[in-house]
Design goal:
Layout: E1 9-16, H1 22-31, E2 39-44, H2 52-57, E3 66-71, H3 82-95, E4 99-103, H4 110-117, E5 126-135, H5 143-146, H6 149-156, E6 160-163, H7 173-184, E7 190-193, E8 240-247, E9 250-257, H8 265-274, E10 279-286, E11 289-296, E12 299-304, E13 311-317, H9 323-329
Parallel strand pairs: 1-4, 1-5, 2-3, 2-4, 5-6, 6-7
Antiparallel strand pairs: 8-9, 9-13, 10-11, 10-13, 11-12
Length: about 325
């Protein structure tokens, strides 16, 4: 057991709205971390079940010195930060990391996450370094983004704003994003552009310049009353579990399936192609192996994974569809 005191762990928040590429960015950083370093990732998801942890773990080789912990069920700073602090404390004790990356949900409140990390409890334990915010410049034409408090707050607290998916931009998108950032962030913010979340490790290093207001506003949205996290709860005899969360104008529906339920890959792909939603993430055990799926407005990606303990899916949309569950069950191999 490592009894060395945990102190001054370099810590970065990597935030951004739904589907902007946060997970891809973190995976890129993990692939390029120094081999001798242990890195920890605390990932928060809007859905009650959690998929990102399985996606991260499924793409790490054995002995990669990467430690993952999830906080599902909405903004991680709710309930006075208890879910976040509990998960973070356990992650730090287990990993004794050389660097900590924190990914709040795209619908979370990064300012309050930053407040929790800067609290007296973590003084001397964490060294809060740069906050990175990913933005898709094409979304500036969509009022659902520019009028959303969380979208603007993510830009306002950033030390580095990364215009991701640059390869898909129209000629004016980059200039429009640079101008918009100036209206939302009065700090000396660094602006970078990239594609597929490919950024240099040097982007993580440096002091966070955002002044945390410890008496900041409180937000109001759905909070789970479950005493046992649904991401860890036993799956019923039916072989699957469904969970719903809503807030910030969106609704999440998620499912967990026992590992003995094997899905047909071709049927899953057909189901995903029919979805018209804001976001979908999944890991599935299929007859052809284990695969991770990511659906955004730019399309569907499929990644072969090393393993996963069970199949999971989370769909985020403006409204739920009752037929999703029936369609998913129809994808199970008989």
């Amino acid at each position: 057991m490592n009894t060395q005191k945990i102190s001054a762990v370099p810590t970065n928040i990597i935030t951004g709205f739904l589907g902007v590429g946060k997970t891809s960015t973190i995976l890129h950083l993990l692939q390029h971390k120094p081999a001798y370093e242990r890195w920890a990732v605390l990932v928060n998801e809007f859905g009650e079940l959690g998929v990102d942890g399985s996606l991260f773990q499924g793409q790490q080789s054995e002995g990669s010195e990467v430690f993952i912990r999830e906080v599902p069920g909405g903004c991680m700073c709710c309930a006075a930060g208890v879910p976040m602090q509990s998960a973070l404390n356990q992650l730090l004790i287990k990993s004794h990391p050389h660097r900590l990356l924190i990914e709040p949900t795209g619908l979370g409140h990064p300012q309050e996450v930053l407040q929790t990390l800067s609290s007296e409890h973590y003084q001397g334990v964490l060294d809060i370094q740069k906050v990175l915010t990913l933005v898709d410049a094409r979304k500036l034409t969509d009022r659902r983004y520019t009028e959303h408090e969380t979208f603007n707050q993510q830009i306002a607290i950033a030390d580095v704003v990364i215009g991701n998916k640059q390869d898909l931009y129209a000629p004016d998108d980059q200039a429009n994003l640079e101008a918009y950032i100036k209206t939302q962030n009065s700090n000396n913010v660094q602006i970078l552009f990239t594609e597929q979340g490919m950024i240099d490790l040097a982007c993580l290093q440096g002091t966070n310049q955002f002044i945390v207001n410890t008496h900041g506003h409180h937000h109001h949205h759905h909070e789970s009353t479950e005493t046992t996290l649904l991401s860890d709860a036993p799956i019923p005899e039916a072989g699957y579990l469904c969970a719903i969360n809503q807030g910030e104008g969106f609704i999440s529906m998620g499912w967990r399936f026992i590992s003995s339920k094997i899905f047909e890959r071709s049927k899953l792909l057909a189901f995903f192609q029919m979805l018209d939603v804001e976001r979908m993430k999944a890991v599935f055990i299929t007859e052809q192996g284990v695969f991770g799926y990511n659906l955004t407005s730019d399309g569907l990606t499929e990644t072969e994974l090393n393993n996963c303990k069970e199949s999971r899916i989370e769909i985020i949309a403006l409204q739920a569809r009752e037929q999703w569950e029936e369609q998913l069950l129809a994808c199970i191999s008989t």
